[in-house]
Amino acid sequence: MSESPLLRATGIQKHFGSVVALRDANLELVAGEVHALVGDNGAGKSTFIKILSGVLQPDGGEVLIDGRAVTIHNPQAARELGIETVYQDLALAGHLDAASNLFLGRERMLPPPLGWMGFLDKRAMRRRTEEEMRHLKIGIKSVEQPVLSLSGGQRQAVAVARAVAWGKRIVIMDEPTAALGVRESLMVLQLIREIRSSGIGVIMISHNLPEIFEVADRISVMRLGQTVANFTKAETSMEAIVTMMTGAESQYLSTGSS
Amino acid sequence: MATPTTPIPPPQAPLEIDAPAPRAGTARLMVLALANFWILFFLLALIVYFSITTPNHAFLSTTNFKNLALDTSEVILLGIGETFVIVTAGIDLSVGGILVFSGVAGGLVMLHFSGTSAQVDNLQYPHASTAIPLGIAVALAAGTGWGLLNGLLVTLLRLPPFIVTLGSLGMAFGGADLLTGGTNLSSVPTGFQNSLGNGTILGIYVPVIVALIAIVIAHVLLTQTRFGRYTAAIGSNEEGSRRSGVPVDLHLIKVYALTGFLCGLAGLIDLARFGTENISSHNTDNLNAIAAVVIGGTSLFGGVGTIIGTLVGAFIPTVLQNGFVINGIDPFWQEVLVGATIIIAVYIDQWRRRRTSK
Ligand SMILES: Nc1ncnc2c1ncn2[C@@H]1O[C@H](COP(=O)(O)OP(=O)(O)OP(=O)(O)O)[C@@H](O)[C@H]1O
Ligand SMILES: [Mg+2]
Fold first, then answer.
1. pLDDT in tens, A79-134
2. H/E/C letters for each residue in A2-29?
3. Which residues of A touch B241 (CB under 8 A)?
4. How far is the centre of ligand 2, averaged over its atoms, from the C-alpha of A174 (Å)?
């Protein structure tokens, strides 16, 4: 535990006009851990992770990667830091197929000179996508079908696969199982375990407490834009989490540093 | 710290998400095929109809088909640019204006550098060989410049493309009138007219060859390159593309500039074909270009579109016009029918969207 954590965000603030979305958000992510982020609707979870993935810029606070202060100017910068995100609204291009989505923004090009002229290596991308799908045990009939025409679960699987395929250090998932049936949810949870076992840190937002207790190692509770508690799973219970989320009892527990 | 073991054992069998993707029955497939290819059938039906009804089957002749292709070449160029813009979920209402402005600008430069105004009025062009390339460059630059302006306004000011291009349409038409002082241009160098306008290679008009080359390049660009991929991705989900690292603003600027360039090219062809630039004859260019695109199956909502569809769609207005003229029907019916066809095409597109996205 002496080495610095993969990611540490302290005192993050964000407001949209007069709306204060985050007043004091904190998080510490250790490699090979699944860190669940819970809180009521509007608690600020999505806003928080959008700051970590470069979509939004914080109005205050500090983000450290490997103990080094960083500014994540845009999603590209987050990706260069090895952070991949599955957004609540997925951020897939519906008219494109799974392979195009998996490689969107970092297409594989044909060897020069065709590559210089902008020609895509569709075959390589398709093959790599098929491999990734097989590796993650995601069954999709064709990776050449528009994502729009897939079922909600399949679409979620594509979004997760994209994050997993590229996430070298941190994978963030905003309600990855919200739209899914039981089987599909189990599959995503299984994926999360696999990512963790490869030493990647996972931040997962979910409203499903049983699910969280099944897969998470550590749980942070957010309320009204503030991180109000941070437990290891062993230290807490669903009742305690619910209490913290709703603010019925305001005691601050922390097992992180400070 | 020990990683806590999960209480529930991981599932044994690989979990497959194979919730049935929408199964297509034969009947459904046929309906979908019809939705996709109706415009081709429509075009073929028009051609058959006019071939039968025109006196002496005048419609059905090589000469007439060559003229049809020539008449369609400008709409094809405009339609190609419009396809890229519409696939990004934008719209360009300024193509007709940019065409005219580019043609006028290029024509004025050609005339100015060809000789003295007295010489030019007598159809003498002593310096045509330098004036023509200069005029071509100016026309293409003017078109590209207008496109750049559109792109910059759409991205930097975050204005709706509809408004931006409606504004630049007015500015380009007005600007063209200002340049000419409201009078028609004198006739541009005959060498230019005979090469780019009425010249032929292997019996095919040069404008048609230019349009064909543009079609092939645009098709490859849209389907095989990163440029095309980004175009569709932005139209499908702009915010998602941005989050995926697609340089959305830069790409949109490129798309509008490309469209402007193609308008400049079409302006040159127009100038060469008619020897001058008739501003008022381009009022329906926007209608025809947008018609070609949406009739060709490109979704006004962005994300999908084909150049081949636009090529087919571009012939609808010209075939109608041509057939009506030969048949002695008031050609104003063409505008009415093209307008109606747009509405039908968009209705079919929406119907199709309702099928594919649940
Ligand atoms: N772009 C925005 N503009 C204005 N207000 C915003 C914006 N994004 C979020 N907010 C506000 O910030 C607060 C936190 O929103 P956020 O989406 O982060 O909540 P959340 O915890 O993810 O909720 P949920 O569980 O419903 O997804 C809300 O009050 C929301 O209305
Ligand atoms: Mg949220």
1. 989 999 988 776 899 999 999 999 999 999 999 899 889 999 999 999 999 988 88
2. CCCCCEEEEEEEEEECCEEEEEEEEEEE
3. 93, 104-105
4. 7
Could you give the CA distance from residue A72 to residue A83 in angstroms, rounded to a whole number? 10
B321 pLDDT above the threshold of 80: yes
pLDDT in tens, B125-154: 787 788 889 999 999 999 999 999 999 999
Closest atom of ligand 1 to A56 CA is: 1
- Check residue B31 and give its pLDDT: 64
Residue of B nearest to A30 (CA): B1
- The rounded distance, in Å, linking the Cα atoms of A87 and A156 is 10
Give the nearest ligand 1 atom to A47 CA. Answer: 18
Distance of CA A12 from the midpoint of ligand 1 (Å): 15
Ligand 1 neighbour A46 (Cβ under 6 A): yes
The interface predicted TM-score (ipTM) is 0.83
pLDDT of res. A170: 93
Residue B108 and residue B112: Cα distance in Å, rounded?
6
CA of A15 to the centre of ligand 1 (A): 10
Q: Give the tens place of pLDDT for each residue, A40-57.
A: 888 899 999 999 999 999
CA dist list (Å): B118 to A26, B111, B122, B126, B276: 80, 11, 6, 12, 17
Record the pTM.
0.86
Among B7, B242, B304, select the one facing A95 at the smallest CB separation: B304
Indicate yes or no: CB of B233 within 8 angstroms of CB of A215.
no
| Cα separation of the two ends of chain A | 14
The DSSP line for B183-234 is: SPPPPPPHHHIIIIIS-EETTEEHHHHHHHHHHHHHHHHHHHBHHHHHHHHH
Exposed, middle or buried, A165 (CB in 10 Å: 0-12/13-18/19+)? middle
The answer to whether the Cβ–Cβ distance between B243 and A183 falls below 8 Å is no
